[in-house]
Amino acid sequence: MGIRLPGLGAGRRRPEPVPFRLGVDVVWKAFAAGVVLLALAAYWFHWNVTYAEDGTAVTAEVLDAGGPKERPTVRFVTRNGVPTVTQLTDYGDYPSVGEIITVEYDERDPGRARRYEGSWYWAYPAGVTVIGLAVPVTAVWIFCRRRREFPGWEPLAMADVTEIFSSLSAPWWAGPRSAGSSEGSVKQKRNDSRDCQKAHALMLRRDQQEIHRALPGWDLWGVGAGPSVERWRAGQRLSMAYDEVWCRRRRGETWRLKISLVESAPPTEATGRQ
Question: Does pLDDT of 215 surpass 90?
């Protein structure tokens, strides 16, 4: 059964050779979101600590029930006998005009009051703290897993590819090179998306087991046009759904070679038969 390889999205397209650029960007965004959530949670915790230290619970009369964007207005008398009319700092359920509710006000600033709901006020920042920590941790875990499964390309030189396949009796061909590439061109950056074309070979599908003989112990994956790929083990036959084999020495290392499985021999003048 095929499994999803990181870097392979929905739809019928191949995995991108360098998903880390997007991956790093996502990690930084996740860290930024986590910092914002933790800052919000810290503010709520500070607010709760302030009420815990200087808050006093009293009964209050609702003068205005408020609305979707307006907080309720209440009237109460402080512990020192000072009548106070203020808007509550939280929304919650909208009370009815004239309803008597319990509020908690700040002794240092009686105009700052909220409905008295006990431990519920501590649940909000606690939940936001958990989310603020979980978001970046999850992003880092996903990024590390993607990097382990799909670390980019470090293609072999074609001379090395030729040496690897020289002992095989089955025919193979050098794959198409990248557009605009030449022997005398400046070496492309290692993480360029065209790197996977540098070490590209073609082999008949019927001879696919020869790949395992040429690359014993390597980590081989079958890649198709759909969103799934499959680790290819010795003795297993790749179905028609997979038309490429991606090769690396071991799991976690960079990809070194791509082999396309073809049904018939390509024109020798186009590929350079080996």
Answer: yes
- What's the pTM? 0.47
Most confident of 60-69, 112-121, 125-134: 125-134
Distance CA 205, CA 201 (A): 12
List strand residue ranges (DSSP E) for 88-167, in order.
100-106, 109-115
Per-residue pLDDT averaged across 1-26, rounded?
Answer: 47
C-alpha pair distances (Å), 184 with each of 141, 159, 188, 201, 237: 41, 15, 12, 21, 39
Burial of residue 16 (number of CB atoms within 10 Å: 0-12, 13-18, 19+): middle
State residue 38 phi and psi, 5-degree precision: -65, -35
Residue labelled with tokens 């390597």: 218
Length of the chain: 274
β strands within 182-232, DSSP E: 200-204, 219-224, 229-232
3-state secondary structure (DSSP) of residue 48: helix
Among the ranges given (43-47, 84-88, 227-231, 255-259), the one the predictor scored with the smallest mean pLDDT: 227-231
